[in-house]
Structures are given as structure tokens and as C-alpha cells.
Amino acid sequence: MYLAPEGEELEIATAAADFIADALPIARLHEGGGSDMGAELRASLGEMGWFALALDEDRGGSGLSAVEHALFFREVGRQCGPLDILVQALGVQCAQDLTLRAELVAGESGVALLMPDSDRHRLIGGTEARYGLFVTPQGAALHDLSVAKIEPRPALDPANSLAIVSGLGPAIATRDGAQIWQLGQVGTAAMLLGLAEAALDLIVEYAKVRETFGKPIGAWQAVRHTCADMAVSNEGARSQLWYAATALKEARGDASAHLDAAKHLANEAAQFATDSNIQLHGGIGVTDEHDAHLLMKHAALLARLFGSRNDLLARLLHAELED
User: Fold this and answer.
1) N or C: which end of the chain has fewer CB within 10 A?
2) DSSP helix, strand, coil percent of the chain (3-state; round to 5)
3) Mean pLDDT of all residues in the chain?
4) pTM above 0.90, yes or no
């Protein structure tokens, strides 16, 4: 088991970083109308095969693993990429019908995430999405949203739209087992890691140029020590993510426990880093024109998906690990 990406994996990471930075720069969120994944971007991602990275070759995918899946979504996270990019990739895994799967792989139709909300569902992602995906650790179900009533709601995170769905019809595709949930954990943990790394990069650069009392603020212990704590937290989350993704790739019996640990550490690292980034920037950190609040809001959402703090810790309390 390798504990860090190498070789072709790093080439995929570099290609993903270049593509996402060009197609989905975080600056879009300051310009308005930059949330969700539009049809043009979805088609572009589909053409590049990003939705099917972890899909078996005999099902029309690239036949790669959770490691490449993590590397791609880490770069999506760095740019506050919308959640429906990940949900589209999970929907591809759920679709059993060849025509439906090809439609989702190509990005011809969109998929948004369904979350239970009393007798209704919340929809996170584009309200123009044709399908909604509901995922649990026991399985996943894909629903046709054309028969449902969708009511948009204000969203705290500018990178994702929010709506309430009622009158949801029966699932048009299902898949039993934990695989889709686990890929969701890998994807959200990777996006959170990307957010944490982006937050650390922002404050380190700022600490070099912002001066107080004739010195860069990075010279003061209160700033320097917090940056060091952020770096340590990020490294722990990064190492556990690579281990968990590799455990899933190798079908280890304790992969689910390592994924829970990876998601928990990513939750903690991203929330700590994005909050500290705002605090250390001072007054400019709370302005709407700065990227700092975008990172924090995105982290707050992702930390509650595919395993929140209490659920993850409860499962980890009883987890059994292999030698």
C-alpha cells in the first residue's frame, strides 16, 4: 500500500488542477450567477471523462480508483467547486441502464443531491438538474425530478443552490451497498482538504506582505503558530485521505473505518483552516470581495455531508482495524 500519490496519479492531479482552475476559477463566485454546474461546464467535464474516473471500464468508465477520484476532487475543492460535480460522478455509479449511464457520463443531464427533510427532501445543486440522487451507507437511489415540485430557497454557500423537493416519485435506478456512499466520503473529504490547503495558501501569502509595527505579520508568533497548526492539521487530513482511498482501492476490510477517519479529519482541518484564515486576515477577511468567506461557507456545507462529526465519531468508537 502506497501512502502518497505517485507517477500517473500525480499526472492526473496536475491535469485536474489545470482544467479546474481554467474552467471553474473561484473568482466566478464574486461575479454572480456562479453557483452550481451549468450545462456547458457539465458537458466539458463529461467530454474529459472526469465523471467516470472511478467507473469500471466495462461500464464505460476510465477504470481508475478512489485515489484518482480523490485527486480530482481535491482540485475541485480548491476552487470552491459546486457539489453537483461530485453528485454527477456518484450518479454515474448508480445508473444501471446503459443509456442512462452514458447520458450522465457525457454530462447531457445533471444530477443534484437529495437530503431528507421531514416528509420532503432538500436538493443541493442546480434546480435545473434532471435527476436527484439520495445516498446512504446502505445504498443509493436515483430519482427523476421532472415529476417533483421544486421550490428554491436561499443558500448560505454561494457555490451551491438550495431547494425543497416534494412529490418525489419512485426511484428510476438503485444500487445496494456502501460503494457510492464511500466514494461520496472520498470526494467530500478531498474537497474539504482542497479548501483547507487553499485557506493556508491564502494566509501564508498575506502574512508575507501585510505589515504591522514595521514587520510582516508572519513574523509574529500569534500568526506564525496558527499557520503551523493549520499545516499540521492539513497534513493529518491529507495522509489519512490517501490511506483511506488506497484502502478502498485495495478492498481492505477496514476501509470504511479509514474513510470515516478521513472524513472526520478533513471536516476538522477545513473548518479550522477556513476560520483561522478569516481571523488572521483581520478586517479584510470578512469582506464580501475576499475569497476567505467563500472557503468557510463551502467547508461548513461539506462538513455536514457524507458523515458529520457526531455520526463519524460514533462509528469510529466501535471500529475494528486490520493489521
Assistant:
1) C
2) 60, 15, 30
3) 93
4) yes
